[in-house]
Amino acid sequence: MSGSNASGVKSFVGLIVAALIGVPLFIFMVVKLFTAGSGVDLGLSTMTNEAISARLQPVGVSKVVDSAPPGSRTGKMVFEAVCIACHGAGLAGSPKFGDAGMWGPRIAKGFDTLIDHALHGFNAMPARGGAADLTDDEVKRAVAYMANAGGAKFVAPEPAAGAGGAIDPEVKGKEVFESTCKTCHGTGLLGAPTFGDKGQWAAKLNGKDPKAVIENVLKNGNGQMPVKGGYTGSDDEFRAAAHYMINHAK
Ligand code: HEC
Ligand code: HEC
Question: Membrane-crossing residues (predicted)?
Fold first, then answer.
């Protein structure tokens, strides 16, 4: 009885001692943690950003940001700036770009599921490929671009027209060229500078700023060159077609 009493008293004393030392120590640690918290937080978020940037190759990301206003980037642009980091070589088990064998089972899931996984992440696939600034439509376009290169025939929402210079000359510009400008510029009809002919295009541009030349034929035409080349779509699409021709005559 007395023995157990004594040990009871001992453990009671021990408890008080522990409380006397332990409680302040505990508070000290909590306070320390709390005050250190802001510092640690800053450090951590910097590290995380660095880690993310390193993984996403910042050069590529800034390229996509610089090349076109957000929301108007094409699937190809998004792929080349963001998704290529993994999907280009099939890193981390990602389906490799252009590999129909790897994309087949993915495509079979359906466009909506793939979009959902690309937007919100899927195993080692980060949400939006890790590029939080991509809009939903841009991600959709990138999914379609990659899946179509692997055998799908998905149709993604097109970039909004009129987003100044955002329309890819190699995609939309080429399309407008094929449908409209080629009639004359394909063969040099009526004295039009022929597609791909450096000499003829250099002579037409004659050292002038291509932008000014394009704006002029867009608004006024030039001799046999009809106003806007007779194109009925948007001004930006006409500009893209003109850039497409000029880019291929360099
Ligand atoms: C950091 C690497 C990484 C980047 C960057 C990345 N992906 Fe992925 N992606 C993966 C991996 C890994 C998988 C395979 C995940 C799995 O099946 O477990 C994947 C799978 C996918 C799939 C198939 C999902 C499914 O359900 O099978 C789609 C679609 C996709 N990615 C789209 C994109 C798009 C669009 C981008 C660019 C905006 C992108 N990814 C960028 C790593 C990446
Ligand atoms: C009916 C024929 C015709 C069509 C269609 C046409 N062009 Fe032209 N284009 C011309 C001719 C002719 C010239 C040469 C004008 C000149 O310098 O006298 C020209 C010149 C140009 C030039 C050089 C600028 C200049 O003043 O010479 C650009 C840029 C151009 N066209 C863009 C386009 C685009 C873009 C389209 C399609 C959307 C288009 N053209 C469709 C006939 C055409």
Answer: 12-34
